Amino acid sequence: MLFRSVENQIVSRTLPGTIEELSKWDDDSVLPSEQVYYQLAKDLKIAVENKTHTRLGSRLNYEMSGIASTFRKTGRSVKKWDIDQQINYKEKFLNIDKKWGNIEFWRLLKLYSPKVTSGYFLNAVDLIKTTEGISQRDETERIYLFLFQRTIYMSVLITLLCLLMGYPVAYLISRLPMKSANLLLIFVLLPFWTSLLVRTSAWKVLLQQEGVINDILVFVGLVGDLDRLQLINNQFGTIVAMTHILLPFMILPLYSVMKTIPESYVKAAKSLGANEWTSFRRVYFPQSIPGVGAGCILVFILSIGYYITPEIVGGTSGTFISNRIAYHISYSLNWGLGAALASILLVAVLILYYVYDKIIGIDNVKLG
Amino acid sequence: MKTNTILLALVSMVFSVTIAKADMTIVSWGGAYTKSQTLAYHEPYTAKTGIKIINDDSAAEAVAKLRAMNEAGNVTWDVVDVVGSDAIRLCDEGLALEIDHDNQLAAAPDGTPASEDFGDLIVADCFVPQIVYSTTFGFRTDVDQWGGKEPDDICDVFDLNAFPGKRSLEKRPINNMEWALLCSGVAKADVYDVLETEEGQSMAFAKLDEIKDSVIWWSAGADTPQLLADGEVVMGSTYNGRLFSLIVEQNQPVKMMWDAQVYDLDGWIIPTGLSPERQQAALDYLYFATDTQRLADQAKYISYGPARASSAPLVGKHAELGIEMGPHMPTAPDNAKNIFVYNFTWWADYRDDLDAKWNAWLAK
Amino acid sequence: MALPVYTSRLFRAWDIIFKCICTFVFFFLIAPIIVIIPLSFNAQDFFTFTPEMLNFQSEGYSLKHYNDFFTNVDWQTALTNSFRIAPLATLISVALGTVAAVGLSQSDVPFKKLIMAILISPMIVPLIISAAGMYFFYSRIGLQGTYIGIVLAHAALGIPFVIITVTATLVGFDKSLTRASANLGAGPMRTFFRVQMPLILPGVISGGLFAFITSFDEVVVVLFVGSASQKTLPWQMFTGLREQISPTILAVATILVILSILLLTVVELLRRRSERIRGISA
């Protein structure tokens, strides 16, 4: 995958002769020589036979709109050419499409001729590699940094919510006698074991405007029938559904740590005169920190890579970077960009993973 | 020793299951559409030949998956249903088989060769057209705030004062940008020229901004019907056949708008890289499934226009409800008063660029 | 030693609030799962409660979605595929996971941490990345869209669960037992199967159950790596949610919920058994 994110062999493989000839092109204020056009004709002839020229067109189209059709159009004409004849190819190409006479286009081709490129990675952080060097993308096209930010922001929020809801529950379960604790644990484990899709669709049923929660609110009279709340297809929907889905991943590690904290410590603190709050804050909480760390990192790591839930309930404001990765892999076919985005995400997760390992050690993870 | 036997057993198990059966995998769009194909093509074909057909609903990712399969040298699909623009792309990239329409497909009953019968709907050499469908709007008929008015103009979609309520639009620039420009006063003929410019694009986005807060974005054809049925939106765009099924088969209080409907084509391709036997089996299937009668049969189950000229007179009544299908076709004269023709070669060039801008706009 | 009266009252109030919070969280956890069960008996084809349903009239309810599930070819293929993929994937992950856990529990393994990290990574690395990576990798080696491809992918996802649960049971394992066994003339194989295995069995089984449910519930990887002839239940549900929203999905969901309750009971019983065994040996 990492390889995909920098690979750019398509240019040199499809137009080998042209690229070689183009490397001799020094003065980029004038169009390349007739020789380059002659090589281009020869390369394209082969490419058309193998049907690779439109793929190259799509590749270069990521960098400059309109190239895809130039290649498609040119391919159709080149197919009929007899390349052995030495005639004026420059003119012939220019007759097909005037883009072949655009110096900017040739500079771009030269720029993207090496076998590896940083182009995808730059694109993934909203930069663009142009013939004048690296620059920021047009404001209307900047999206990925924003999405990375949003992914992180929402994941933090989800993690905090999970902690707020998970801590009391884990505490309660860990203090109860075995039998009732196990019963309550089933309440935690049941959602954990229930299909992710089932839970996501359940939230869809609950949260939509004509859904259960809005119906109840209208029935109780908190909300008018005409201004039902928008609870789904936005960030709120994603956060609620994901908090629900990830909550067990917070409760289980918390519980396994809390179970090991002897009750006698808190009792000792109290007998030494600490009140409930102080004994919790000074004695109990510090001992539960490893569980908090484990749960938080686990939830955070899982949530920044989430894909299915935001896809179904996220609308446009609640989608994550992983939705863009999936989009580039399955729909836009810009696999290089998808791989670059995924690589960045992977590095982020690996760093967190390392932190996680430092705090608790990966072999200390327990699953109920 | 024990582990070795277990391993051996495992390996043999794996291989015994992977031995290919002579089933065919046919890829399509799912929902009511796949159902209509199953009833009109698959079931009669299975009855005739005994070949079992497996449905795969991943036509939306067809290009990506075919490319991956092609790279892997392991093509698992036999026949794929794609839209016209995808067919062009697949054909250009050598991922779809070129078809000799006259020799490999059935002629019309009166002997007209297939290429003439399909006419200019054959947009690529690899493409066997199947239906003409349209993307259009449906709206609920029971919205109190509208005071009895009904939207009948594409620009009513952008008019939140006269027609308040949520709308659903497709989560992609195609069609939406064109509609936005039409309602910003751009003439139908100039839409693509204007959209090519920065100013044109900002104009379209500005128009869409007016309703952005009231839009639920859909990505699957079934979303809008579901949203309309639930009352989540009061109007929304989707494929006309989905709306037909919602209105006529499910009896929901919804009507079609038809104004500025956008025509598109859908049809079959056969992937390259199949073994000769499988390729022949796929061609046999296509010969059967795209003849005049079969195409007309599909229209009994869903309101999409058959792609053969010779099928049109054969379009009859709905298979279960017994109503005439003709007036529900996007091509019916009453519905086709104002159509918009979508330019796929233009989108092939500007899609990457506009997708990026579109998504940046959506995310804000 | 009694606390001062004012603290106690405060504490009692806090205790009530605390219980309310916990009840709310449990409600939050369970409610979404409960809500889908009645909807799966909806007589309509949409996801919403109809007025008939809310008035508990019998015409609002029907079994037609269950009927659809059991008669529809697509759902049945998906069900069969799930049962063809999950057990084999589970078997592979249990076999490899147990071996890895036992091997790594030896103290003299070089790069122990690193190996552990790599083996556990499928659980930690976002699924979308594993899926995308497998997609590209499998495309290259020709496993894309094959049955073996999915089984291997699911096995890889299941291994971490097995390793974790088995390692947990190994923590309490008394090393002198293997030495005693070796002393009495048993080979390493025999020692493993006759001495170690019975003791770590509960860990192996619960790891296996996790691996099974992972494979049974997994959708992202299947969507990327699989093809229609390997479509599993979650795949069918996902495309169902996207393409043809129908309460059949909810019927399937209800069946799956019941299945997971059964599995949970099994795990719980196993756990109690293992505790009893340990209680006796201690």
Describe what you observe in this structure.
The complex is a heterotrimer of chains A (about 375), B (about 375) and C (about 280). Chain A has about 375 residues and is mostly helical. Chain A folds into 2 domains: about 1-115, no CATH class; about 145-365, Orthogonal Bundle (MetI-like fold), CATH 1.10.3720. Helices cover about 70% and strands about 0% of the residues of chain A. Chain A is built from 19 helices and 2 strands. Chain A has a two-stranded antiparallel ribbon. In chain A, a hairpin with a 2-residue loop joins β1 (about 125-130) and β2. In chain A, α5 (about 55-60) packs antiparallel against α6, α14 (about 235-260) crosses α16 (about 275-305) and α16 (about 275-305) runs antiparallel to α19 (about 335-360). In chain A, about 50% of the residues are buried. The radius of gyration of chain B is 22 Å and the shape is globular. Chain B has 2 domains: about 20-130 and about 265-330, Periplasmic binding protein-like II (D-Maltodextrin-Binding Protein, domain 2, 3-Layer(aba) Sandwich), CATH 3.40.190; about 135-265 and about 335-365, D-Maltodextrin-Binding Protein, domain 2 (3-Layer(aba) Sandwich). In chain B, strands 1, 2, 3, 4, 5, 6, 7, 8, 9, 10 and 11 form an 11-stranded mixed sheet that branches. Chain B is α/β, with parallel strands linked by helices and about 375 residues long. Chain B has 14 helices and 11 strands. In chain B, α2 packs antiparallel against α13 and α7 (about 175-180) crosses α9. Chain C is mainly alpha-helical. Chain C has helices at about 5-40, 50-55, 65-70, 75-105, 110-125, 125-140, 145-170, 175-185, 190-215, 220-225, 235-245, 250-280. The relative contact order of chain C is 0.12.
SSE layout:
The complex is a heterotrimer of chains A (368), B (364) and C (282).
Chain A: H1 2-6, H2 9-14, H3 16-22, H4 34-50, H5 53-61, H6 67-78, H7 89-96, H8 103-111, H9 119-124, E1 127-130, E2 133-136, H10 144-175, H11 178-193, H12 196-207, H13 212-220, H14 235-258, H15 263-271, H16 276-304, H17 308-313, H18 321-330, H19 335-359
Antiparallel strand pairs in A: 1-2
Helix pairs in contact in A: 3-4, 5-6, 10-11, 10-14, 10-16, 11-14, 12-14, 14-16, 15-16, 16-19, 18-19
Chain B: H1 2-18, E1 24-27, H2 31-49, E2 53-56, H3 62-72, E3 79-83, H4 84-92, H5 101-104, H6 114-118, E4 128-140, E5 167-170, H7 176-182, H8 191-195, H9 198-211, E6 215-218, H10 223-230, E7 235-239, H11 240-249, E8 254-256, E9 261-269, H12 276-289, H13 292-298, E10 305-306, E11 339-341, H14 344-363
Parallel strand pairs in B: 1-2, 1-3, 5-6, 5-7, 9-11
Antiparallel strand pairs in B: 3-9, 4-7, 4-8, 4-9, 4-10
Chain C: H1 5-39, H2 51-54, H3 64-71, H4 73-105, H5 112-124, H6 127-141, H7 147-171, H8 176-183, H9 188-217, H10 220-225, H11 233-243, H12 248-281
Helix pairs in contact in C: 1-12, 3-12, 4-7, 4-9, 4-11, 5-7, 7-9, 8-9, 9-12
